[in-house]
Amino acid sequence: MLVYNLFEHAPFSFSQTEKEAVLVPILNEAVNYHSEHCLPYHSFVSAAGFKKNGYASIDEIPFLPVSVFKNHALKSIADDQVFKVLTSSGTTGQVPSKIFLDKDTANLQTKALAHIITSVIGKERLPMLIIDSKSVLRDRASFSARGAGILGLSVFGKQHTYLLDDNYELNLEEVDKFLSNNNGKPMLLFGFTFMVWQYILQLAEKRPVDLSQAVLFHSGGWKKMTVMSVTNEVFKTTLFQKFGLKKVYNFYGMVEQVGSVFIENSEGYLHVSSFSDIIIRNPFDFSVMPHGEKGLIQVISVLPQSYPGISLLTEDIGICHGEDDASNGWKGKYFSILGRAAKAELRGCSDTFKG
Amino acid sequence: MILQQISPTKIAAIEVERLPCFSNTDFELQYFDERTVGFFNSISQQVLKDASLRQIPAFVALAYWLRKSNIETLRKTSSEKIDNNQRIIRQPLGVVFHVCPSNVDTIFLYSLAISLLAGNKNVLRVSNRMESPALDALFAIINRTIGTEQFSMLHAYICVVAYGHDADINGYMSAHADARIMWGGDKTVQLFRALPAAPRCRDIAFPDRLSFGLLKAENILSLDESELIELCRLLYNDCYIFDQLGCSSPQVLFFVGNENDCSKAQHLIYSGLHQWAKEKYVTDLAALASLKLNQLTNDAMDEKIIDSLRDTNLLVFAQLKEIPIEPLHSCGGGYFYIKNIDHIKELSPFINKKIQTAAYYGFSEEELISLAKMAAGKGLDRIVPVGQALAFNNYWDGYHLLDQLTHLQYLWV
Prior knowledge:
heterodimer, A: alpha/beta, two-stranded antiparallel ribbon, 24% strand, globular, B: Aldehyde Dehydrogenase, Chain A, domain 1, Aldehyde Dehydrogenase, Chain A, domain 2, 14 helices
């Protein structure tokens, strides 16, 4: 099967066994392809202690550390084929990651995202309320993930309305216009988790909002929410109680593997689509952890064709909870992210006068 | 110019000119004064009694070094006759300014001790942001001891201060010090060199250093199991203490011998070292795993290495493509660059001014002397047996520290 064939199947329809059978040949092909067309990747596969070819299962595929895109410009295409370069600004002072896309890969990523998102919201564009300020798209420093998320999902919406003005205050004039057309009707909401929590609740105090037919996508991690003792359950229950909102989908994506989005399933966990796989690795020796045990999250995707981003070890810690048995019928693995691994704090003798 | 004083007493804000080491102009303590020796012996005993400090190998080593019996071995006569008429009288230089590394490390305490034994007054700058419960505990012990009647004269002799990046204060220290000891790497040394110092100020610089291991394959292969375990224990101590990031911690391991022997020896050392790391090394595995994978990936993509051995993330052996000419520093925590060579003389292009310590196993005196001679004018400060890489010595980085910090007064009667 080719990558393009995957679109003929619903995004959560492959059992883990079926997925392995489909993805392993594609990934073998991909490793060979990138080794031939990207010299640094070839050097990595040869020297970093991985099996060099003939991978019998997904867990044998070599994995790059996700930070590699900060230190090396990796591409398997000629310079004149570069269509777009994605960057992640990361935290201040850090070198950004650079991801090189050609037209085909950019196209694949867009289609994959659409394939996944439309499977839960349907094919029609919905009126969209963005729980953020339009200024986030203008301000280059804070652009990063929030802006990328907004742009990525905007294609699935229409009548795009931003909840907040440039001062991050409720833009009631705009919101009233939006609600007068759409309150109580199908609509698409998007925002970062902590933004949604903070600002939609503010809105509830000012306006009666009926989100019973709406669908919310939110992303951004639970760190800030955990500090406030807001779990996924509390989050969803509160939104249901205040707005009648039933369809809430947490999602997780990364600039290093755009298009491979993980969406919350019926059990409340992030679910892996047919384009991807997830492996949890033991930090001690990178062996595969069984379900229910935490470790470093490795993400695999067959979408990156213009750059060797098919198999990456993130710096996030997570747990895989199960596979093929979500009650909504979605097949494949599902997992949760527990947090970032700490930065190594190894001491030494030098740098008395570091910044 | 205000700064924070940590020793001899804690003062939140004090003017730099008012520091006791500058404001008091008497030099009461003699060269290797009994009171100084007694002071360090007392510190030594207190450190070994301290519940938290005696758990830390680096502090235990320091305490043993500060014992009277060890200090006495450093003593040279304070008045040394050359002949019937000529003699040398050893005097303090004056005030020594120490720039201490910001990371937790005990090495600067040795240079403080040597400086004090020479009779110098000392002002030490530690980082504002330094978070070290161990050093806090040590300074508390020092303050307490200086506070006693017996050692009260030392209050003008040990002054520990903290301040941020302040060119004015740095400039003041440089202008008033008779010697500057600069720990902390190339950047720190260059920063202070750029500041005008008093004309007779002696600079003792400890910039970026790189150290390596030198292992003879044939000898390793002839060891029995318990001998191999012991060798690896010594190597573990050299390598994993200070997370392999100390200036004397080996970054590269050279195996000397034919290809076959070297390959076998590598595997034996890998297994043995790994076993010790598994038993003794305490670290955040997730952080270490990412750190090493990044290092390995960069080294592979930069075409520095051609293969690697990593059974677990506790220990990585990365095979170098060729003898490194540029300094190769790893990420630490048990990541080694490995190279097999036929003969010691192949090390010649590797030796440069950044190379500090060679920790060896399996070489004869002749071979070691030939290594030393090969490095003439090029670098290499210390050649020591495996197990002694981190052991501080008066001979350090090519200096005789005590002499560097001593004013040699020539007298002709």
